[in-house]
Amino acid sequence: MFLVLLSVGLMTLDHRTHRLDAVRAWLGTLVYPVYYVVGLPDLVVDWAGETFAGRRRLQEENARLRTENLILHAQLEKFEALEAENVRLRTLLNAPVERTEKVLIANLLAVDLDPYRHQVLINRGTRKQVYRGQPVIDAHGVVGQVIAVTPETATVMLITDPAHALPVQVNRNGLRSIALGTGNMERLSLPHIPKSADIRVGDLLVTSGLGGRFPRGYPVARVEAVEIDPGKAFAQVYARPLAELDRSREVLLIWPRTLMPGSNARAGTDSTPAPQAAGGMPAR
Predict the structure, then answer these.
(1) How far apart are the C-alpha atoms of 181 and 175, rounded to whole Å?
(2) d(Cα 248, Cα 27) in Å, to the nearest integer?
(3) pTM over 0.70
(4) Cα–Cα distance between 155 and 133 in angstroms, integer?
(5) What's the pLDDT tens digit per position in 83-115?
């Protein structure tokens, strides 16, 4: 009872005189570390929660940014591919085609992996009036000719195929010959050229129009070697194809004026004879 009365008296005295303020401040200073230690676990938990939450947000943001970066890179690569394709198509439209001849752009679907055959598959067939023996070119020169057709696709034999032969002539003087495939994408052979023939390195070879399959005047190749061997009867002449045979993704199908769709030609039928070489000779 005494302690209660003493406490009440002290409180009344402190309320009126404020003489215990110094003691209260000293006690507050003394007790503050205890309060801090008691509340420290809560502070640690809050700090850890904010830290882990911030780290999780950063990880999620980094993952999102990486995904967006990959998407943007893929779109950029697609845009670059489209730009390159547009450039190729614009170049293809400037191919040396006569205005009176119909042309059709075709895309490559597959390449024959047989090293002894140079053939490609394109996405045009008889539904587009493609026919066997039809000439095929790109923006730079003659590519080859169609050797097989289906309603939706066609197989093209390249001029470098060992079984292909193409009537050509030297653009400078009209000297005629046959360009034979060698199995090398970068070389054609011109057999039976006399040693005295006027043919030089750098001469442009164009289609001669003989045989009636390839129209006259389309660029084929450029002479890169003329070898004279005294022990042989003919000169060895080699030429480099102008068409980008190993790089072209788009080609042009040509309908010569005598074989325009809707004429009496045998376009689009499988009864057309197999590809032939110069002067009607069957391809080797």
Answers:
(1) 19
(2) 91
(3) no
(4) 10
(5) 665 666 666 666 666 655 788 889 999 998 788
